[in-house]
Amino acid sequence: MLLSVAVAGVALAVSTAVPLLGPLLVALVIGVAVANTPGVSRHVVGTAPRLDKLLLRGGIVLLGLKIAVGDVLALGVSGIVVVLATVVTTYAVTQVVGRALGLERSLVTLVAAGFSICGAAAIAAVESSIRARPKDVALAVALVTVFGTVMIGAVPALGHVLGLTDEQTAIWAGASIHEVAQVIAAASLIGAGGATVLAAATTVKLARVALLAPVQVVSARMCRSADATRRGPLVPLFLLGFLAAVVVRSTGVLPPSVLDVAGTLTTVLLSAAMFGLGTGIVARHLWPVPARALLLATISTLVAASVALALVTLLV
C-alpha cells in the first residue's frame, strides 16, 4: 500500500510538471520498469492483486463525484446528442473494425471503451469485468495516451482552420479527445482560452464519463457471451458505487473543498492501481506494437473526431 501510494504521488508530481504525461500512464510505466528490473521484480510482482483491485474500484467510485447530472442536462438537447452519438458510434465502430482486423476481443473492448469514454480510467474499469490480459491493458492505455496527446494540439488548430467558434471547438474537444486532462489541456489552446471555454469542454467530457456505467455493462456482457468461462456479476458493486457518487455530487451537498480533495484522491487511487497493474507486465511482450492495434486506434480516433465535428457543425 505504501509503495503504491508513493508511486502515485511521484506520478502526480511528474504529470503536474509535464501535463502531456498523465499520472495513470506514468504510474503504469513505473510499474513496468520495476517489474522488469532484476533483483527488484521478485519483491513487487503479483504481491498484492487484491489491493490493486481495491484501489482501482475505490478510484472509479470517487470518479463519480466529478459528475453532476444538472451540468450534463445544462448542455441541452444538442449537446447531449453530440455526446451520445459520438460515444455510441465510436464504441460500435471500434468493436466492428477490431473484429475485422482479427484482434483479441478483450483488447478491442478496452480500446473501444478508452477511446469512446475517458481513456485510461475507462480501460481500467472495464478490465476489472472482462479480465483482460495485463499486456492488453498496458497497450490500450499507451495507445489512448498517445493518440489523445496528438489531439490536444490538433483539435484547437483544426477548429481555427475550419472557422469554428470557440464554443464549437470546445464542445468538439470535449466530445472527441480521450482523457479528461487532455481535454483541459486542449481547452487552454482554444482562442483566448478562459473559464467559459474550459467549462464547456470539461462539461461535455464529463457527460461522456457519465456513460462509463452502461459501456462497462455492455462490455462485460459482450465478452461474457464470447467466452463462457468468464464469471462475475454483470453490474459490479463498484459501478453501483460510481452511480451513487454521481447522485451525491448532483445534490450539491458537498462543498468545493471536499470535491477538490476527492478529485486528488481519485487520481492517487487510480494511479496506485495502475502501478500495481504495471508490475505484472513483461516489457518484451509490448514491443513491437502490433500494426493492427495501431490501425484500430487510428480509426477509432478518426471516428470520434469526425462524428463529433459533424454534429457540432450541424447542431451547435
Automatic annotation (TrEMBL):
Which keywords has UniProt assigned to this entry? Cell membrane, Membrane, Transmembrane, Transmembrane helix
Q: Which InterPro entries match?
A: UPF0324_pro
Q: Does the keyword Glycosyltransferase apply?
A: no
The transmembrane segments are: 60-87, 107-126, 138-160, 180-201, 234-255, 261-282, 294-315
Q: Where in the cell is it found?
A: Cell membrane
Q: Which sequence ranges form a coiled-coil region, renumbered to this chain?
A: none
Topology in the lipid bilayer is annotated as: Multi-pass membrane protein
PANTHER family in the record: INNER MEMBRANE PROTEIN YEIH-RELATED, UPF0324 INNER MEMBRANE PROTEIN YEIH
* Protein name according to UniProt: Sulfate exporter family transporter
- Recorded source organism is Nocardioides hwasunensis
Q: What is the lineage of its organism?
A: Bacteria, Bacillati, Actinomycetota, Actinomycetes, Propionibacteriales
